[in-house]
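debug: dumping io for the single-chain case to check the tokenizer round-trip. Nothing else runs in this session.
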Amino acid sequence: MKHIVDDRIILSRAPEGPLAAHVGSFARSLREQGYAVCSIRRKVMIATGFNRWLKQQGVALPSVASDHPSGYLRYRARQVRLFQGDGVALRQLLDFLRNERVIPTEKSTSARSLTPVERCAQAYGQYLRDTRGLAAATIVNYVPFIRTFLKDCFGDAALALSHLCARDVVGFVQRQAPRLHPKRSKILTAALRSFLRYVRYLGKTKLNLAAAVPVVANWSMSSIPRAIGKDQVRQLLASIDRSTAIGRRDYAILLLLARLGLRSGEVMHLELGDIDWNRGQMTVRGKSGPRSGLPLPAEVGKAIAAYLRRGRPPSTSRRVFLRARAPICALRDTCSVGGIVRHYLERAGVDAPSRGAHQFRYGLATEMFHQGASLSEIGDLLGHHSPETTKIYIELDLDGLRTLALPWPGGVR
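debug: decoded output
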């Protein structure tokens, strides 16, 4: 007898097994995440097969664990050909059951199985988050360097933090810094100073080893920031097909980069409530906290409105820009914005100075400078607290500097 899961998913028979009561709600959750009907049907079919197998194995609902899917897939491989997404479907099923508190959440890793280095790095990361209140991006940058430092000093042996000395610190930086980009080297030394202050905070040493961290040479203006040109921006925007939902989304994202000079993270974290349509203003969440009252140009507002009306998938997420494919959710990281930039630069054949999103900030600052904007006006738009930061964008405007250059004594020869 056929069993109707919903109006589009019909099974040849009713589900049998410990998960039978939850197959329908699993299908509805997949629909809410934006999966296509054919994908939902496939995932439900895998779930019902897994459900029958659990019944054959005598597994009760509270005992379903993360090792059961692999057992079922081995069993299924002897019956039919497996598909690439079968394992993913079962992981989604178990995640759904855990979120619904139908089965208990498992601890991914026991604290006892961690190595001394991993335990220390994990504790340091928690200290940065809970005690120091640092941003997640900073923690992600710092902790791997500290894990490498501890591994370099102690290997897999027990950590004797009280035995650390200046020679260990200097030697580590001297070995690591030459392999890294100057900016990464600066992050390395900052992380090391932070960790050594943490070690002193724990009372593991009375020495101020943070002072022993050498300074990595990083001359200001050693590389010229590369700004995308006004004509290149025009060519890039004109190449986007705005008749599609993805095109409308990406056009709005690129306009925010080009017209307001937003960072990738500011675009990614933009929420529906951040836009004041009546006042033509918006709030962005930048590196130094929220910035309110940012002007919303009419061109940018129209592009965002077009995406919201005829492109943004239905979702409970408050983020403005969502993934176009299931699972429908907010853009996951700044790499998503960078990937959009690279895609359209390559497709439009634009010979831009770089493939990143940050070149739009330099381009906007340069264009504002040419239009006569002051240093403070440019800094206010870009969200700079220090004029020195804004100067980097202006002082390296070579075309502007040429008009101020003194003639070579003796004239041209």
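debug: round-trip ok. The two ends are 96 Å apart (CA to CA).
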